């Protein structure tokens, strides 16, 4: 039993100085393998030349991440982070790093060059660059005004 009283139904452990969680709104939510890591954070920006996606995937190797294009111009980024192996004599005090599968999909605009997509990983950040077709500006011909 804890010496520190429960706050919002959560117990704290006086022996663990980091255990005083005042409020965790997701504490009692149902959990499954996919939901733990499903919210991989991804930014999407558009430049004049391309659509650029940056995904935070710390701890993953490039072999553990997939970048695919599905029918209908859908970019799919997926992967899986495995749990650490538990040894018989291990005592876990806190598990905060998420594990499990993640999958994110983005519908790309019609001007995406799907055959020229590039992806790279550096320091736990996946960068996917989707070049855009150059938008042709209509030729404008001046018309003489008579009269």
UniProtKB/TrEMBL annotation:
<protein>
    <recommendedName>
        <fullName>SHSP domain-containing protein</fullName>
    </recommendedName>
</protein>
<dbReference type="InterPro" id="IPR031107">
    <property type="entry name" value="Small_HSP"/>
</dbReference>
<dbReference type="InterPro" id="IPR002068">
    <property type="entry name" value="A-crystallin/Hsp20_dom"/>
</dbReference>
<feature type="domain" description="SHSP">
    <location>
        <begin position="33"/>
        <end position="147"/>
    </location>
</feature>
<comment type="similarity">
    <text>Belongs to the small heat shock protein (HSP20) family.</text>
</comment>
<keyword id="KW-0346">Stress response</keyword>
<dbReference type="GO" id="GO:0005737">
    <property type="term" value="C:cytoplasm"/>
</dbReference>
<dbReference type="InterPro" id="IPR008978">
    <property type="entry name" value="HSP20-like_chaperone"/>
</dbReference>
<keyword id="KW-0963">Cytoplasm</keyword>
<dbReference type="Pfam" id="PF00011">
    <property type="entry name" value="HSP20"/>
</dbReference>
